Structure formats: structure tokens, C-alpha cells
Amino acid sequence: MDFGLTEEQEQLRESARHFLASECPAQKMREIAADAPGLSPELERKMAQLGWPGLIVPEQFGGAGLGMLDMAVLLEECGYAAMPGPFLFSAAIAAYALAAGGGDEIKTRWLRALAAGDATGAVAIVEANDGLAPSDFAVSARTAPAGAVINGVKMFVPYAQSASFFIVAARTGAGARDVELFVVPANAAGVKIRPLKALDLTRRLALVEFDGVLAPPEAQLRGGADLYERVLGAGAIAISADSIGGAQRVLDMAVEYAKVREQFGKPIGSFQAIKHAAAEIVADLEPARALVWYAAYAFDALPREAARAAAMAKARACEVYSRAAGKAVLMHGGIGFTWEHDIHFWFKRARLNESLFGAPPYHRERVAALGGY
Amino acid sequence: MDFGLTEEQEQLRESARHFLASECPAQKMREIAADAPGLSPELERKMAQLGWPGLIVPEQFGGAGLGMLDMAVLLEECGYAAMPGPFLFSAAIAAYALAAGGGDEIKTRWLRALAAGDATGAVAIVEANDGLAPSDFAVSARTAPAGAVINGVKMFVPYAQSASFFIVAARTGAGARDVELFVVPANAAGVKIRPLKALDLTRRLALVEFDGVLAPPEAQLRGGADLYERVLGAGAIAISADSIGGAQRVLDMAVEYAKVREQFGKPIGSFQAIKHAAAEIVADLEPARALVWYAAYAFDALPREAARAAAMAKARACEVYSRAAGKAVLMHGGIGFTWEHDIHFWFKRARLNESLFGAPPYHRERVAALGGY
Amino acid sequence: MDLNYTPEEEAFRRQVRNWLDENIPTSGLRGFDRNADRDKSTLEKMKIWQRRVHQAGYLALSWPKEYGGQAMDPVRQSIVNEEMVRTRAPALIGAMGISMVGPTLITWGNDEQKARYLPKILTAEEIWCQGYSEPGSGSDLASLRTRAEIVGDEFVVNGQKVWTSNAHFADMMFCLVRTDPDAPKHRGISYILIDMKSPGITVKPLVQMTGDRGFNEVFFDNVRVPRRNLVGKLNEGWMVANATLFHERNMLGSTTTTQMLFNRLKALAAATMRGGRPLTHDPVFRQRLADLEIRVEAMKYHMLRQLTDSIRGRNPGLGAWANKLVGTELNHDLAAAAMEAMGDYALLARDDGHAMDRGFWPYEWMFTLGLVIGGGTSHIQKNIIAERGLKLPKSR
Amino acid sequence: MDLNYTPEEEAFRRQVRNWLDENIPTSGLRGFDRNADRDKSTLEKMKIWQRRVHQAGYLALSWPKEYGGQAMDPVRQSIVNEEMVRTRAPALIGAMGISMVGPTLITWGNDEQKARYLPKILTAEEIWCQGYSEPGSGSDLASLRTRAEIVGDEFVVNGQKVWTSNAHFADMMFCLVRTDPDAPKHRGISYILIDMKSPGITVKPLVQMTGDRGFNEVFFDNVRVPRRNLVGKLNEGWMVANATLFHERNMLGSTTTTQMLFNRLKALAAATMRGGRPLTHDPVFRQRLADLEIRVEAMKYHMLRQLTDSIRGRNPGLGAWANKLVGTELNHDLAAAAMEAMGDYALLARDDGHAMDRGFWPYEWMFTLGLVIGGGTSHIQKNIIAERGLKLPKSR
């Protein structure tokens, strides 16, 4: 019985926090956010040097072979920094999908490149109707002599613009479980990317059109609906970890501000209303962090509980983040509503986290269904 | 355009508040609550002298011929005092049912007696399955030569023990609107009353069994499902008005306490947490009061909006009351949890108000359905 | 209680509505224009619009006739307000003058000041901004430090204001300045009127989290203001300002806007499919919608009750202290519900082509949060309710 | 992270469970016994039960062996706690001694005190109550005024305590008294042990809103207490008490109880029909249930994390300050959800024959509110989190 981080995980956390504090402080985050691609090649390169993209990639493909809990620890720090870039989507979700469902050829081609920092993957799931169930998909994969032919439009694809390849969820029949994941190079014939303007300035979103894109047999990941569910789980956990980190940051910002800002002749942190708002964030955040750790641990170690744990984490963590961000903005008063102050980046990122990979009511319903209510 | 009380209504309110402060202060309320019947014959007699039981009874049957808004104003004060007794159920709901649906014989016999304070009526609606829809009822009225024969068991009937007669909702067929209201004297053959122990000590509840009770034709109120809906509306408004008064009282108690109780060398009312809790009650309560007034006004003046307005009032007012009572108990700290302090009477009454005549989720669904969502 | 309007009032409403239908500019300007980042030509159009409303007799209905008002009762004022919102008439560019400094001058100003300023407020010849908040005094307004020294017939003003909406195009500012630094903080403040073209004034934009310019910082460097621009008595500006703050509280509590927001949210939910059915049929979202509608309706009657008090010439009582808190939080909750309704579409910025409801909601969601904060955050509002409304002891 | 138990721990758990299955009294006593209004014979049965648990070696697992403990690690303690709740074993009548004064004596007591008191805590020969709160000092505990003057070899105690659970049958009280009225309020307090049979003590019951007697007022009229009953140093009782308060915070945060409450709520909802289907299939109530389960699970792992910290000998950190707040509010929310689930059945008192779930919930609903209030209301808990956890400035 041990519910805690290992020494290595603690070190990972410490070093990530230090690295991001120096390489991606708020000022740098703002610069990256203001730049069209929404990522810093320099920062990406440095992360690659640290081996972050390959964190959960098996060692035989150049990764560190670690697990989802390690990734969650790292993503918590990325969320703390509101780090822009494709990292979460590529290193946690696409990497998982490839590692879990890819054959040797795919792994050798894409997973190795991803781990080395030479490629990023983007996951293309929801469409115009915004549903996560395979039956919601219009994007289809039709069997053809040379593989599968993919047609349709995916929406809200994070960092499609800079991706080297996509993991595309496509429908292969009318059944509820007729879904397959395909690996499609970004430069494949028939792929068109149209950027969307995102509210969260630390993320890039796009619409991706697949117009008769041919996916050869090896590009189809093994696992079908089961793999698809697992990939959603990985996404839920990754966003949850980012949310915990973000909630911690807005709390830290608000507490810091409350200690120095004075009104009525004393620091506003001495007023109960401010104190209680901060305390409520703590009371929300600390148990939610444990829940996210549990979900990440269960993802690898307790497969039968993993889906439900991920749904729980996602339902809770992103709600906690949004609520914390709202409270933290209010604790700042007027300055918190300005562009000049950094907090709005987290405030908007919290909103994106809330809906990406399923909003809280969706996940609560899943918790009920998977729990046999 | 005038959204306010008339001078007469203001006077009614003032005189009710003064009357209840002197005739039903907390100490008296506790005595009545501790007494098995849960009512004070003396207090009932004095109210009758003031004409309260006949407030909405037409003048030709000995009443004052006033409307639901007047009644709401009065019930707000009764809620403020947490006045025990059948008044709300008899004078607001049963009286309305008789006045709206009774023939001359019924009115002459029961409505006149009710207005004079010589009889009280109890409404018997829900049953063991706790539903408000006619299709939920097992209590049936079968046509017989001499009238209707009523069979079945009603639950949670307020002040059945002391009632002179019941207004019973009975099913007359399989359809969703096959419901009729009957007036059944408490001493009719086949009526059995079994007291239930209520959490709210200021109210009495009972189970009422109707075992082949014969209701002559004149005992059937005119109006069927429409009248039944109106009676539910009257109930919703009456409970809402009581709730607003109760919420005002717990606020007043908490504010009073916060001004005198000292901790850390100053009145606890100078701490923001206490202030903000009180302010939140005000912010909930004041708009809710306007909503209840509106619903009561609409009940008589705007029949097409009346049902929806009553559902809105009930959904909001009783939630506001419960929340206010919970906050007020916390504002009192330990003393608020004792039997010795009066506040628990309101706290428990709020809970009864929340569920009687339909809990907030039920009424919100009604608001949506009636609003054509 | 009687929620009917008199036949005369109904006729007046029809007349207003007809006038609006015929006169609302069809191009560009439209209600729910939350964007304060106005260019010159928009500004000019908005002034023209206000002038036309004024000429039609629909502006400042409750002001005395001698100052360009109509001396009508508050019911007609509320009818005009309702119809303006309902028809999505363009915002009144001079709102701050009309609702805040105008009524203050009517109460506290001398005859010369009334004659000089009131007409131009109505004709939009002079647009006003408010100089209250300072960097060091947000919630604690009375701790303001902008200094005005009397030198001869002038005040010489030095200091800084912040969160000043519209300062970048305003002609005049009503401003609180410290005229006696040695007096207790509420006692040394004066209320003066400053010409924004005076030498020594610098206006710097403050961009909001929405990305729009709305607020400004205003710097005063030896700005000279004639003594005749003092409103009320010297060092008694706090009292004068409190009257204005009360007007502000009422202005922010407009409920027609809230009703419009709810209707828009309901339409959005009806048009949004989730799990194969409109979101309005989703039992969970229905509960939320119904709860919001109930709160919107409660607020509507809450404000009608105060309108009635005002018609009857009575103090509106405890409830009025809660208007700003309840109204702004409700508006923000409506926007937050819309954000939830939109699912991933909530992630799109206002100007994305795929945005739902023409990108209205994400902006509104932030803007309404700004209103929760501005003019005293909810924390401050709760203090006000508790201290002024419930007479709980102060804890400064 | 490894949520598996070692084979030894699993074996230990089986052994505990088997022992409980065989030894839990089948009559009367049962877990979830919130009623503190115990008669003599119940009391006697409860003492016998605790003695049996002690003899079996399942009491005070983390205490050193020399004082009757088992010197086991916190995992085994948590296994025993979990199994006790899961099998609905009767409450331990000496819990306050075991969890609060015992650990305090182990840390601060002298050898004589340890030898004298600890064994009898475990054997339930001496039942303890806590003398902290006073009528004038609820949240502000350190302002207590019960006076203890040193006269010869004795303290002479005068004053009053309140909210004293179990005082009507306790043998001993651990008590905070003021021994130096001139020192700053935290500096003049001592921690002493008082024999409840001492002349001059009067215990008066305080009935709870549930109708049960649980608390008491305790009056001291020249009560003589030997000086050797002082724990720690004179005037340093505040430090001693703080250790105990920390134990209290942990005791109140037990999560197995919370999990049991959730399971009971879920079973209630599954058994309750509404609109022709079980309430667990109602989409709105499902959301609420799922949200509660998520919070219950989060709390479970939150406590496991602290358990791990304690195994590793590390400070549990910021999160532990939130245990009382989160745990008690969650329990109350679970009970409130059950009340809603029951509809009109929630209106029935515990002892009505028609009450659902044997009348468990209405009582639990009130009792858990009492736990939100007791030991520092949520207001106080938030101050503690902010001031001790986040180091925000005090505002006394």
C-alpha cells in the first residue's frame, strides 16, 4: 500500500517545475501564445533533450518506457506553466495510441520520431456534431484494395497545424463499436487543415478535412473500439493532470497577490472573503489531485478500473480548475480582468480543458453507467 | 403597473406580525409543538376572531373574499413565526378547493364552518409512492348508486388528526386526467387516521385510510383535473409564502445573534464570513419574495400564467428557505445545533416545505414543460 | 398589485416601439454591443443616434423639463428602457452622463452647472467618463490619493485614475480628488468636473482579457481645473459621489438585458443537438435552464417591486442593495450555461467562422465576469448588503 | 504508487475480518450508532466490546507496546479501521481516549502519567471526555476563562465548559484551564486531567437538535485537581492541546464511513421509484450521485496519500488541513442527497414506522451538520487552511 510518488517521480516533478520556470515563464508563454504556430521550436527541442516526448514510449523505440502516472506528474507542471504547444496531445495521447495499437512499422516510423522530438502527432476525434461516441462520427473508413479510404471532417483538432501525423477515429460500420484508429501523415494526399481561432490562446485548434485519404493496412491501429476507449481515457487523464497543475497555479497567483495587495490599510489576504476563497480552492484541489494520480496509476496498473477512474478524474479536475480560475480572477479584482495580467491565460485554458474530451456532465454519466447505477 | 402591496395588505402584514409576536412567540410555538395535537385551540380561536380562516372565502359564506396574494402576505408571517397548526392547509388550500369547486350545499356546510373557525379541512393527495400525478394514485373513486365509493390510502396528510373534513384526490379512470376531488367528513364511515411522526415539529402528518367511504354526489367538487392542478398551485404558493417568511426569520435570528455574540474580542457579525453568509441570504431571499408575490397575484389575476408561476415560486422559495436555514444554523455555531435554541424548528420546517407539494427538481421540470422548452 | 399598464402607458409603449422600428439604424450599430473599442465613425454614428432619441423625447424621461427631460414617471422610463433592449436598439453612448453625472448634477449642482452641462449630456455633445478608482484604491475607494490643490481660482490636479471606461473619447470626467489630505479619509474628498482636453492629461489604454480596449489609465500632471467645476461643497465629495454610486447600482441591474440573455440561451439550447435530441430536452440541462429562468423572473419582479417603490416615492429597502450582486452574477451564470451548452464550440473565439450564435457567448462570458468585478466585486457587494443593509458592524 | 497490499497485510485483513465476523455482538450494538444518548446497560456492553477488541490485539495498533499498543504501522491501523466500519462493528466507547488523550500523553505525558492512564484507556476502565470549549469561547478557543489556581499541591478549578460530549458518563476529562490570567491568551493555559467524580463538578445535559442528549455543560466549583495531573509544562497547555486538535482533525476525516454512506445512498436510490423507474436511472439524480461518488473517491485517495506520508514519516502537507472541512461537508451532502431521494418520506422522524431505510437518514442529515459545526465550523476550517496552510496573514 503506497499512494505516493516514487523518488524518481518527485525528481521529475521538481526538475520539470524548475525547467519550465526558467524556459517557459509567463512572459515566454505570452510570446509563444502570440505567435501564430502557438509553439516554440526552441522549447520543443529542449524538452526533447530531456526526453519528455518519449516519456511513455517503450525503450525499444527510443523512449523512457515510463507510465501514465509519470506523464501525469509532468503534465501537471505543464499545466502549472500553461505551457503552449502540442506536447500533451502528442506525447501523452498520440504516443499512447501508437504504442498500444501500432505495428512495428508504424512504431518505427512515427513513434520513434515522436520520442526523439522529430515529429508530433495530433488526435482527431470529434466532428461538427461534437459527439464522442463512434455513432456520432461521419468520418468513415471504407475498405479499398490498397487499405482504407478515409472521408470526412474532424473538428477541434489540437495542434493539427504543426502535426506530422494524425490519429484519426473513423467509423467502419453502423455498429456502436465499429470504430478504428488510423495513422495519417499530415502530408498525405487529401488532407486539408483549416485553422480555427481558439479562445484559449495557449492552444491551437483546427478543422481537418480528409478527402479520400488512403491509409495503408499498417496505418490501422490494432484495438478497434477498445483502443479508442483507451485513447479517450488517456486524453481525459492528460487534461485532468494539466487542470490540476493549472488550478495550483491560479491559487498560487491569487495567494501571492493577496499577500502584497493592500486595501483598507492591510493586505487583502487578511480579509476572510479572500481567505475563504483560497481555502475553498485548496479543499477542491488537494483531493482532486489524489484522484488524478489514482486515475493515472489505474490506467496502467488496474485496467478494469481505468475507464471509470479516468472519467472521475476528468469530471472533477477540470471543474475544479474552472472554479479555481474563476475565484482567482475575482480575488485579483480589476487587475485580473486585464489583458496585461497573466491570469486570463489560465482562465481560458481552464475553459478549454473543461470541454475537450468530454465535459463534466458527460463524464458523470459515464461514471454512473460504468458503475452500474 | 404596480408591483407592491396595497395599504390594506401592508396593514394585514403589520397586524399579523404583531399578533403572532404576541400570541405565538417562539416559546409558545415550542409549547404547541410539544403538545400532541400540534395546535393551540386558543390561538386558532383568536385567529378566527381576526377572520383569518375566512380570508379567501367569499363573503357570502362568511369570509373576507380576499385573494391569494392577501393569503400569501399572511402566510409569510405565519412562516416567520413557524406557527404550528392546520391554518395553511385549511385556510389556503382546502378553502380554495371548496370555494372553487364546491356546490352550494358543500359551501354552506363546510366552507362557512371553515371561515368561522369551526372546522378545518385537510388535503389528502400523495400516497405511498409519493407521486403528484393522477396516474400515481391508487386511491380510487368508483361510481355507485348513492355517489362515489372511495378506497385506498393517502400518506403525509398534514393535520389529518384534527381535520373536520378531507379534500381527497381520487382516480376515476386510467387516463392522465381522470382525477376528482371529494369532500369527505373526518367522521365518515370507513375513514381511519394513523398519525405519522414528523421531523418538522411544528406540523402534524398522518396516513389516512379510506375503506369503502361513500361520497354523495354533492361531495364531488367540480373541476376534475383542472381543479386538482389549481389546488396543487394553491399548495405550492402557500408553502412558498411560508418559506419566504421562514427564511426572513432565520436571517433575522442569525443577524441578531451576530451582533451580540463576540469571538476574538468583537461581534462575530464583523467577520466577513458571517457577513457574506447573511448577505447571500438577502440576495436569495429578496428576489424570491417578489417571485412569490407574483405567483400569488397571478393565481387570481393571470390564470394562464398561474401554474407556471406557482411552480417557479415553489422551486425557488423552498430552496432559498432551506439554504438560508442551513447557513443560519452555521452562523450560530454550536448553539444552533442544540434543542434549546429555537432555530432548529425553522431548519426542520424548511425541510418539510422543500418536499411537500413537490420538491424543486419536480417544479423545475414543470417550469420547463409548461414553458414549452 | 396590478401588472397591467394603463391604456395611456400601452399607447406610449406602442409609440416608442413604432418609433424604434422606424428609426433604429439598420447598419452596424445594434444592441448588446459590449465592445467599447469604438472607432471614430462608430462614435459619430452613436452620437447621432442618441441625439435622435433625445429629439424624439425618449431620453432622460425622468429629468425635469427645464434641463431637457420629460418629467415623466418611472414607468415610462422603464417602458423606454425595455423597448430599447427588446428591439436591440444601439447603446446610448452618453449613458454615463445620462445615468450618473446628470442625476448628480440635478441634485447637487448649482444653476450655472446645470445650465452648462445638462443639455450637452443629452445631445451627446459632451461624453462623460468617471474618475473614481485608482491603482491603490479599488474596493477601498475612499483611500484615493489623486490630489487637487487650490491655487487661486483653480484646482491643480496630480495623480492617477484607473479602470476609466471611455476616457479615450470622453470630453469630460466627473472625478473624485483629495482636497484635504489631513482629514479623515472620507472627509477630504471633493467632486470636480474635468475637461478631458486640459493640458497635462494623458490617457493610456488598458486592454481587457477579452482583447478589447475598454478601460484606461488616466494620468494628471498639474492639470488645472476652474474652481467653479466643484460640485457640492469642498471636501464633501464623498456624499456627492455616493448619490452617483447609487445610480450606478441601479443602472447595472437592468433586467430586460437579463431576460434577453435568457431567451438567447434558450434558443441556443433548442438549436443544439446532444445525444440525438435538442439540449432543451436533455433532463439535466432542462433543470439548469429552468433554474436560470426562475432566477431571471425573480429578478424581474424584484426590480418591478423597486420600480413601484420609486413610483410611490418610497425607499426601496434592503433588497436594492443586492441588485448589483444578483444581477451581474445571474448574467454571468447565463453565459456560463451557454458555454456549457456549446460543448467544444465554446472553445472558439468570437471571430471564428464556425463559432455558434455568431460568437456571442465566449465574449459575453468574459464580459459579464468583468461586470461581476467592476463597480465593486461580489465580495464588496456582500459587505455593502451586510453593513448598510443589515447594519452588521464594520470591520475595517 | 502501489495500491496492492502485501500478502502479510492481506492475511492480516482476513484475520481481522474473521475475528470481527465471529465476535461482533449480534444484539443491539451496531456501527453507525450516532446516538450518544446511551443508557447504562448499553454503556456496559460497549465497554465489554472495546475490551474484547483490545484483547484481540486490534486496539491502538500504532501505540508502543509498553503502553498496551501493538507498535504496528499505519497501514494495519487503517486496515482495522476499514474493517470495523465495513462490518458495522460497534463504535468504540473509549474513542476519545484512544484517539485524543492517549496520543497526547504518549507525546507529552511523564512516565507516571503514561503508566497510570494509558492502560485504562484501552481497557475502557476509564472513559474520557474533552474540556475545551466554553460558552464565551467557541471558535476562539484560546480565550477560555475556566480558571485554575495553584493552592499547595493542587489546582483549584472554577468555571464552565460546554459542548462536552460524553461528560455524563466519562470518568476523566482532559481539560484546558487558565493558569496565568495576565499572560497573552495563548500563554497562560495549562492542560490538566480531571477526575469527573471530584466534588464540585456538575454535569448538565445539552440536548441536540436531533432530540438526543450528546453534549453537556460542565460546571466547576472549587474543584481540586492534584498538580501531578498537569500534562506538559505549566502555562504551555496550548501547545499540548494543539497536538490533540491535530489528532481530532484526522479522526473526523475517516473515509470508510463516507464510503459506507455513499453505498447506502446508492442502495436507497436504486430502491426508490420515481416516475416509474428507479431513482438511479433518473438522469438528474444520476448526475448528483456520480458527483458525490467522485468526491467520495477523491477523498479516499486524498486520505491514502496522507496515510502514505505518515508511513514514510513525512509531513502530510497542505491537504491535511482540509480534511475536516471536506470530510464533514461531504458526509452532510450525502445525507442531504438521501433526503432529496426520499421525497416526502424525508419528512418522517427516525422512529416512525413508515420511515425509509429504518429512519437512518433524517437523523444522519442533522448529525452530520453537527459535525460540520463541531470542532470548528467550516468558517474556522477555512481560516485554518488559509492561515496555517497558505500562510495568509491573520486578521484577529
Question: Can you offer a commentary on this structure?
Answer:
The complex is a heterotetramer, with two copies of chain A (373 residues) and two copies of chain C (396 residues). Chain A is built from eleven helices and nine strands. With 373 residues, chain A is of the alpha+beta class. In chain A, strand 8 and strand 9 form a beta hairpin. In chain A, helix 5 runs antiparallel to helix 7. Chain C contains eleven helices and ten strands. Chain C starts with 6 loop residues before the first helix and ends in a 7-residue tail after the last helix. The interface between A and D is large, with 45 and 55 residues.
Question: Summed up, what is this model?
Answer:
The complex is a heterotetramer, with 2 copies of chain A (373 residues) and 2 copies of chain C (396 residues). By secondary structure, chain A is of the alpha+beta class.
Task: Note the main attributes of this structure.
heterotetramer, A: alpha+beta, Butyryl-CoA Dehydrogenase, subunit A, domain 2, Butyryl-CoA Dehydrogenase, subunit A, domain 3, 3 domains, three-stranded mixed sheet, 9 strands, 15% strand, C: 396 residues, alpha+beta, Butyryl-Coa Dehydrogenase, subunit A, domain 1, four-stranded antiparallel sheet, 10 strands
Question: What is the topological layout?
Answer:
The complex is a heterotetramer, with 2 copies of chain A (373 residues) and 2 copies of chain C (396 residues).
Chain A: H1 7-23, H2 26-34, H3 41-49, H4 68-81, H5 87-101, H6 104-116, E1 121-124, E2 140-144, E3 147-158, E4 165-171, E5 179-185, E6 191-196, E7 205-215, H7 224-260, E8 262-263, E9 266-267, H8 272-301, H9 303-332, H10 343-355, H11 360-370
Parallel strand pairs in A: 1-4
Antiparallel strand pairs in A: 2-3, 3-7, 4-5, 6-7, 8-9
Helix pairs in contact in A: 1-4, 4-7, 4-8, 5-6, 5-7, 7-8, 7-9, 7-10, 8-9, 9-10, 9-11
Chain C: H1 7-23, H2 40-55, H3 74-86, H4 95-108, H5 111-122, E1 128-131, E2 147-151, E3 154-161, E4 172-178, E5 189-195, E6 201-207, E7 213-226, E8 230-231, H6 237-252, H7 255-271, E9 273-274, E10 277-278, H8 283-311, H9 323-341, H10 360-373, H11 378-389
Parallel strand pairs in C: 1-4
Antiparallel strand pairs in C: 2-3, 3-7, 4-5, 5-8, 6-7, 9-10
